[in-house]
Design brief:
The longest helix has 34 residues. The chain is α/β, with parallel strands linked by helices. It has eleven helices and 15 strands. The protein has three domains: 92 residues, no CATH class; 98 residues, no CATH class; 145 residues, no CATH class. Helix 2 packs antiparallel against helix 11, helix 6 crosses helix 9 and helix 7 crosses helix 9.
Length: 411
């Protein structure tokens, strides 16, 4: 037996109400005038309160009504073999497919949410897509509950060759652009010079000596080429000055989406994590700053906050540390527009890998109480209605018997 809303049993305390009423109520005797008693001297009447319960059958019925109503609100569910068989005989299936604005991985997450809201049944996730490399990974499937089956269906045809959208680059020699071409398992890239002049939207706040070192790090980053930052996105980099880290006092919490996305991208960067781990000591993070990378002692090696219309990043590392160019490169690429290149892959995920990821839906072991679509409370409500009818009958019969007794006594 499972109770879907066990807290409703607290209402069973109301069953004490009929007992208290039956215990406290007392009938007043009717006053009858007898002529032969008019010459007796009046005396003070003694108040007698009845303490014995009266009409136990009627009391028991009323208490039972309240207890059964509380049990019905609690939602009883008898998990029998027959009911479990009905649940396992049903199959709820959701299909995940990429759309124009949603990737396949995001569609998988949305399908899992819909499956979680389904009533008790075996559940299966069907992933229908071209299933190119990188469109879905083991990490994406790890979010699927283990009892949910997974099946793959290839849809559409992949081209033998595809040229990707051109993307602008910022380099030490000026603006350039690159457009890769995928041909089977081969990748080639056509690069051309030209385009609008590009200057990194990065302001450095440091002493003159430290600023010169940071500018050299920025030049090194440009020599390795970075994606051109998006329009209207700016960075402010504050570096340690003589081993002392000063956070700007006008910083605010990050509320702009592109800033939040940039902070998340920097924090995920593997090079940033590796370089920050080599820093011996970090600094404490005062609000509203968010930790971007942690030093070897667990404190912040870099932290970020909003400062006006720019994303401010504070580095606790010495300016000449390798962490500086690594952080600059990650920050600049984090504010670049998102690329659609990953969706343009033409190589499919191998069939052997898909078969390794597939699994059959597992039978139901224990259903979630918030997903039950039918329980057994209707039988309790039926019993409540029967007892209510019986209570009405007994109460009216008691009144009728009392009236007949009164008439007989007067007669």
């Amino acid at each position: 037996m499972i109770w879907l809303n066990a807290a409703a049993w607290m209402a069973a305390a109301a069953a004490a109400a009929p007992v208290v009423v039956h215990w406290l109520v007392h009938r007043r005797a009717a006053r009858l005038l007898f002529p032969t008693l008019r010459f007796l001297l009046p005396t003070r009447l003694a108040a007698v309160r009845r303490r014995a319960l009266d009409d136990l059958p009627l009391l028991a019925i009323r208490v039972s009504i309240l207890i059964l109503a509380a049990a019905a609100f609690a939602g009883p569910l008898l998990v029998s073999g027959r009911r479990r068989g009905e649940w396992n005989a049903r199959l709820v299936r959701e299909t995940a497919s990429p759309s124009g604005t949603r990737s396949l991985a995001e569609s998988v997450d949305a399908a899992v949410v819909r499956l979680e809201a389904a009533p008790p049944a075996r559940r299966e996730l069907v992933i229908a897509a071209p299933l190119v490399l990188g469109s879905v990974t083991a990490a994406d499937l790890a979010a699927v509950p283990p009892d949910v089956g997974i099946r793959f269906e290839r849809t559409g045809e992949l081209p033998a060759e595809r040229t990707l959208t051109e993307r602008p680059l910022a380099t030490a020699s000026g603006p350039r652009s690159i457009a890769p071409t995928l041909t089977g398992a081969q990748t080639s890239a056509a690069e051309r010079a030209g385009g609008a002049p590009v200057s990194l939207p990065l302001d450095v706040h440091a002493s003159p000596q430290a600023k010169a070192v940071v500018n050299a790090a920025i030049a090194a980053v440009l020599s390795g080429r970075v994606w051109t930052p998006g329009t209207g996105r700016r960075l402010r980099l504050v570096v340690a000055d003589g081993g002392r880290v000063v956070t700007p006092g006008d910083a605010e919490r990050i509320r702009v989406p592109w800033m939040a996305d940039a902070v998340a991208a920097i924090a995920r960067d593997r090079d940033v994590r590796d370089a920050s781990a080599r820093i011996a000591a970090g600094v404490d993070r005062p609000p509203p700053w968010r930790v971007v990378a942690r030093a070897g002692d667990g404190r912040a090696a870099a932290m970020a906050a909003a400062r006006g219309d720019a994303l401010a990043i504070v580095s606790a590392a010495p300016p000449a540390d390798l962490f500086t160019p690594v952080l600059v490169r990650a920050a600049v690429e984090a504010i670049a527009p998102a690329s659609d290149w990953p969706r343009a892959e033409i190589l499919p995920i191998p069939d052997a890998q898909l078969r390794a990821w597939e699994r059959t839906p597992a039978p139901i072991a224990a259903p979630r109480v918030d997903r039950i679509d039918r329980d057994d409370r209707r039988w309790l409500w039926a019993a409540v209605l029967v007892l209510l009818a019986l209570e009405q009958y007994l109460r009216r019969s008691r009144v009728r018997d009392a009236e007949e007794t009164e008439v007989a006594r007067v007669a």
